[in-house]
Amino acid sequence: MVTQLILMGLLSLCSLSSSQECNRELKINLDFPGTDIVRLYSPDVMHCQQLCTEHPSCLFFTFIRSDWTRDDGHFDCYLKSTSSGQPNVESPLLGVTSGFSLKPCSPVPQPCLSEVYQDVDFPGADYRALFTSDYEECQRACTEDSGCQFFTFVLKDFRTESIRYKCHLKFSFSIPRTPIVERTAGLVSGFSHKTQMSQNFDTACQNQLFPGTDIPGQDNQVLPAASPEHCRALCSAHPRCNFFSYVSDNFNCYLKTNVHDMVMKAKDGVTSGIPARFCQLDNNWIKVSHEGVDFRGSDIRNMLTDDAQMCQRICTEDPNCQFYTYVNENFANSDYWRRCHLKRVITMPAPPKITKLDNVLSGFTLKNCPTDV
Question: Which of 76, 221, 267, 347 is at 20 to 30 A from 48, Cα to Cα?
Fold first, then answer.
């Protein structure tokens, strides 16, 4: 019954993005009040619009700009949705800008976040710090570091002398993380074959998975993962992950940080391993379909298809789709048979918090930008 109710909720999201037209207009000093899905943080309206575009169910948004004066809600990015696909209300409001998801636009734009933001801090998500002569060198360090997604640089006039010229490199996941993975009879889940899970290197990685082995303790983060290989990709993407353990019974991927030693213990149902840093992972695991497994949530849209193979092909061909779940005829309720649910999560750089702070400067990696930017 619980799974049936979940699927009823998923069906209500059917084809929201496909029913909209491409609308790039930004509405300055106009609010779309209510119908919030989630509040995230953005340094400007273009970043907020990209968050809305990558969020599975966001159709439009309202961004609180830095010139907002009513309270300290600057940089709030409110992602929104309605069943009609249009705002219920539009209200004049100074200090905000509203707009629409770019999901319906073809091609879907890939963000180059080349702007830097004076007197703006991206607090949190630090994994490394160094001193650089200027913010340009800090940004280059972020761009060259595979783990860095954004940075904050402390300028020469900052009030605390000892941390002037300090460059803080910060991390957010740039690869898909399935929000919930659980066993459910009659469902088949998998990934788009175009999903990018690692950087490109000339040297192939050696297989460093240890079946039947646990590495206890030193957990930095626990994430859902579809397989030990998916867990390894997550660990490889995280700059503070030094090894991992994957529990097959509950699909939990434990990212671990110990830099001093790695003590292995035999344990059934657990696979541990070492991340890949400077070699090319074998991504054939992305093509594996997982029978009796649900990637629950994060639906973009759904439709009827003949089988799971067709569902996978549709996901691969859809530039918005990262993974999918298909309902086959082994599912308990026939009302949901043959439904293909296309799914995605946000993978663009997304600071966990943004605040005003004098004499710092923040920005993003230029990995996704043309070389002449």
Answer: 221
